[in-house]
């Protein structure tokens, strides 16, 4: 994971060649990226899907990530992966202001999820504090 991101996450290079840095960020935010950052050395990295020396654009029929080859590419790590399995979007950035509806949905789900986590943990903390306080006051009387 040091080879590909050196260029694909570099602002200067991406600006010069009119590329986007979102692929690296979205990888690190994905299950595979989080798993890799957590120490899983068997998790998919850039080369797992894009190849090593024969990297081609997704529009090229010989590309590992061409729509006709995705099932085979995904199936190399996920045996039995169906055609539907490989139809999911891989590089999704969660943004409520994203260009695509899927990005917006993921962004809103993320926001709602964070709000729910804060409310549940906050509510449990408040409940435990008030319960402790009531028991402390009852013991004092």
What is the typical, i.e. mean, pLDDT? 87
The number of E-state strands comes to 0
N- and C-termini, Cα separation: 63 Å
Q: What is the percentage of strand-forming residues?
A: under 5%
Helix content: 55-70%
Strand count, sense and closure of the main sheet? none
- Globally, the shape reads elongated
What is the H/E string? HHHHHHH
Catalogue the unreliable spans. Answer: none
**SS summary, helix count:** 7
Could you tell me the radius of gyration in angstroms? 22 Å
Task: Provide structural commentary.
This protein has about 140 residues and is mainly alpha-helical. The protein is built from seven helices and no strands. Helix 3 packs across helix 4 (about 30-35). The longest helix has about 40 residues, at about 100-140. The chain is elongated.
Condensed summary:
This protein is mostly helical and 141 residues long.
List keywords for this structure.
141 residues; mainly alpha; 7 helices
Topology of helices and strands:
Blueprint: H1 3-8, H2 11-16, H3 22-29, H4 31-37, H5 46-50, H6 70-75, H7 101-140
């Amino acid at each position: 994971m040091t080879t590909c991101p050196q260029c694909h996450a570099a602002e200067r290079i991406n600006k010069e060649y009119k590329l986007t840095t979102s692929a690296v960020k979205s990888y690190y935010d994905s299950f595979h990226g989080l798993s890799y950052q957590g120490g899983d050395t068997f998790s998919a990295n850039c080369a797992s899907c894009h190849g090593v020396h024969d990297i081609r654009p997704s529009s090229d029929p010989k590309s590992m990530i061409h729509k006709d080859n995705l099932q085979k590419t995904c199936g190399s790590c996920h045996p039995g992966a169906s055609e539907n399995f490989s139809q999911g979007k891989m590089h999704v950035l969660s943004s409520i202001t994203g260009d695509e509806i899927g990005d917006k949905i993921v962004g809103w789900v993320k926001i709602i999820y964070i709000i729910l986590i804060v409310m549940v943990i906050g509510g449990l903390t408040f409940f435990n504090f008030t319960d402790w306080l009531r028991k402390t006051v009852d013991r004092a009387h």
